[in-house]
Every structure is written in structure tokens, then in C-alpha cells.
Specification:
Number of helices: 4
Largest sheet: 6 strands, antiparallel, barrel
Strand order of the largest sheet: 7-8-9-13-11-10
Mean pLDDT: 83
Number of strands: 13
Order of helices and strands: EEEEEEHEEEEEEHEHH
Distance between the termini: 30 Å
Helix content: 10-25%
Shape: globular
Radius of gyration: 19 Å
């Protein structure tokens, strides 16, 4: 789903036009234990091209960059907590916080990191956007590196009525997890963005398959 704002004014005063696009295919992560997919959709609908703001590979930080960051680095997470959003302007809700571990660390040796942000149902797949301005040595991070895609939200932690820490998936509804019997821990888990790069060969293979089918007709 995409939204068109007034290109001449950059205004949010009018409700944007919302368009629906057909999903062409879904490519799963090569590791079935990693809950991450790439969704391919048609480039045009009704003769109009899709317009979107997106991240590129340049926005995915490498280990050398992550090692420079302080343990509690600033992040912003745009999402739809419990279905809350701005329906007039077609905008998500931006939650802000910090990383709960050094960004370079893989929690429990899995491809995950932690954020100190209250995560709720409706946040599944939300980008964890790094907005740290200085590194751990106090050196200013250049504007080109100021915004990075740290990862994608996948799970969140709560304490259940028995006092046990429970990991819940963000696509579960409030009713399914009985939130009234749980204490928020305000810790979310995300999949490191490097795993998006690991999906690239499978996505390229799918595009090659499309091209072969197209050329055979």
C-alpha cells in the first residue's frame, strides 16, 4: 500500500491517495529459523508507478561501523502499536528509545539485537532505525552515516502471571496474549539487518527466473 502526498507543497494537510498493489511473490530467508521474507510486488498498478522511500544496502551498517557505537545508541521505530496510526495522513507512530545491548552484539549468539523500547502487537516488521549522532569516543558521525537500518522488529518480552519472562511475537493480538495478565518489560527483539543482505542471492535467483519465463514466451 502506498500514499501520495502533495509533491509541490510537501503538505500533509490533505488526506493522501491510497493505492493497493498486487503481491507478485514472497521469498523466504534461506534459514527457516529466521522469520524474514522479501515481498515482491508489481511495479505498476492502473498505469501509475509505485513511489516509495526505501533503504538501500548503503543504509545497512557493517561490523566495523557497529563496533564504534555506544552500548545504548539512539533508535526510532515507526510502527502501528495495537493498530494505532494516523489514518488521515496514512502515517505510522514513531517510537524512540535506545539499543539494550551494544549494536554489534548478537544476542545469545543469534542474529538478533535488543532495544529498550515498549513494543506492542502491530510492530512486526517495523524498521529499527539508528539515529546516533556520535560514536562511543564522542566523535561526530557524518551525516551520510547518521541514519542506518539496524534491523527489523520480530519479538517482544513480557513477564507472565507466574513471573516468567515470555517472548511474544509481534503479530499476536492483545487478546491472544492476554496482556492484562502480563507485565511489560519494555524490551523488544529485532533481526539484524545483515540478514537482509543474506537474502539477496535468493531474490536475484527469483528475478532471473522471471526473466527466463518472460524470454521463453
Amino acid at each position: 500500500m502506498g500514499a501520495d502526498h502533495d509533491a509541490d507543497h510537501g503538505s500533509f494537510d490533505e488526506k493522501p491517495q491510497i493505492r493497493t498493489f498486487t503481491i507478485k511473490d514472497i521469498v523466504s530467508h534461506p534459514n527457516e529459523d529466521i522469520d524474514l521474507v522479501t515481498i515482491l510486488f508489481n511495479q505498476e498498478d492502473g498505469g501509475k508507478k509505485i513511489g516509495a522511500m526505501s533503504f538501500t544496502e548503503q543504509h545497512i551498517p557493517n561490523s566495523e561501523f557497529l563496533e564504534r557505537l555506544p552500548p545504548s545508541s539512539n533508535v526510532v521505530i515507526p510502527s502501528y502499536p495495537n493498530g494505532l496510526w494516523d489514518s488521515i495522513h496514512n502515517l505510522p507512530i514513531n517510537r524512540s528509545g535506545t539499543t539494550a545491548l551494544p549494536p554489534v552484539v548478537r544476542f545469545e549468539n543469534n542474529p538478533n539485537g535488543l532495544v529498550d523500547v515498549a513494543i506492542l502487537p502491530g510492530s512486526s516488521g517495523a524498521p529499527v532505525i539508528l539515529t546516533q549522532a556520535v560514536d562511543m569516543f564522542g566523535t561526530e558521525i557524518t551525516l551520510n552515516d547518521r541514519v542506518k537500518l539496524l534491523g527489523v522488529i520480530s519479538d517482544w518480552y513480557r513477564i507472565n502471571k507466574d513471573g516468567d519472562i515470555t517472548l511474544l511475537h509481534t503479530d499476536q493480538t492483545s487478546n491472544e496474549v492476554s496482556l492484562k495478565y502480563m507485565i511489560p518489560l519494555d524490551v523488544g527483539r529485532f533481526i539484524h539487518s545483515s540478514e537482509i543482505i543474506n537474502m539477496k542471492p535468493a531474490v536475484i535467483a527469483k528475478f532471473n527466473e522471471y526473466n527466463q519465463q518472460k524470454n521463453s514466451h
